[in-house]
Amino acid sequence: MSSGGGWTCTGIRWSGGGPAIGWYGRGERGSPLSYGQRLAFTARGERRCAGVRRAGKRTPCPTGAVVPGRAGNAQCPDCARLDRSFSVAADTHADDPRTYRVYLAWFGPGLVKVGITAEERGPVRLLEQGAVTWSWLGRGPLMSARRTEELLRATLGVPDRVAYARKRAVRDRLVPEPERAAEVAALHARAGEQAGWPESLERVRCEITDHAGPYGLAALTGPAAPTRVLRELTPGAVVAGRLVAAAGPDLHFADGLVVDTRLLAGWELGAADERAVTDAPTAEIPRESDPGAGQDGLF
Known about the structure:
The structure is a single chain. The chain has helices spanning 77-86, 124-129, 142-156, 164-170, 177-193, 212-215; strands at residues 8-15, 18-25, 27-32, 38-44, 52-54, 57-59, 100-108, 111-118, 133-140, 202-203, 209-210, 228-230, 238-247, 250-253, 257-260, 268-271, 282-284. By secondary structure, it is an alpha+beta fold. The strands form 4 sheets. The protein has a 7-stranded mixed beta sheet with strand order 16-4-13-14-15-12-17. Strands 7, 8, 9, 10 and 11 form a 5-stranded antiparallel beta sheet that branches. Strands 1-2-3 form a 3-stranded antiparallel beta sheet. A hairpin with a 1-residue loop joins strand 2 and strand 3 (27-32). The chain is globular. The model is unreliable at 290-299 (pLDDT under 50).
C-alpha cells in the first residue's frame, strides 16, 4: 500500500462494502485492500494538512500547514473549523433539502449509539464508524432526523458517540450474531415506543445488518487478536504486516497490530521492503474491563 508521485494519504475509504486507502494529489483515487495481503509502507517528508473536502471535492490547505503526528484529524485549525461549519453536527444547514436517516448502531455489548446520516450515503457511515450490527430507525428532513436523534439518545440512555478505543477493545470478543441482532431489535422496539417522534419523520421497520463478514472479524483470533495500536507515524517510520481485517478506520494485522488510518492521513506513503517490520511507535490496547479503558477518543 503506497502511492508515489506526490499522492498524499487520506485514510480509509469504504465503498461497495469493502475497504480502500484514499489518496489525493492530481485529483483523488483509492487503492482497494484485500484480506490476506501483505502491507509494508514508510512515511515520507512531513505530515501536512489534508484541507477540506466538500461535495465530493477537496480544497487543499492554503498554507500546507504541518500537522502533529499523533493528531487524529489531519487538518490545521483553520481547515478544521471550516470543515466543521459544513458538518451536519454543527446544525448550521437547517435548510439542507436532502433526506436523512436515523440509525441505531451496535459496537459491542452495551456499546450502542443513535445517529443520523444523509440517505444518499446508504450504509457507508456505519462502515466508517465500525458498527458491527445496526438498523435504520427512520427517515425524513434533516431537522426532524436531528430532533429524533436527540429524543432517542435521552429516552434510551445511549451516548452520542462511542470512543474508537472502546470499540477495538471488544472487537475480538463479540457475542454471537443472533445475540447482537436481538439486542439491536430490542432497542429498535423500545425506540418505537417513545413518545415525541416528529410527524414528518417516517419510521422504518427493523432490518438488521451485520458487518462482521465485510470487516473480516472472524480472523481476530489467536495472534491476530488486537493487542497494540499505532500511536503515530514519524518521517521514515515503517508499518508492515499481513492485513486480516478492517473495521471503521482500523486496519488489523496478523500480529495483533491495529493501524488507525486516521494517523496515515496527511502523509505521503512510500513502499517499504517486504521483509520490513513495524518500527513506528505503538501502544498497548487496554481491555474494556481495565480502569480507564477507552477514555481517549483516539487510543
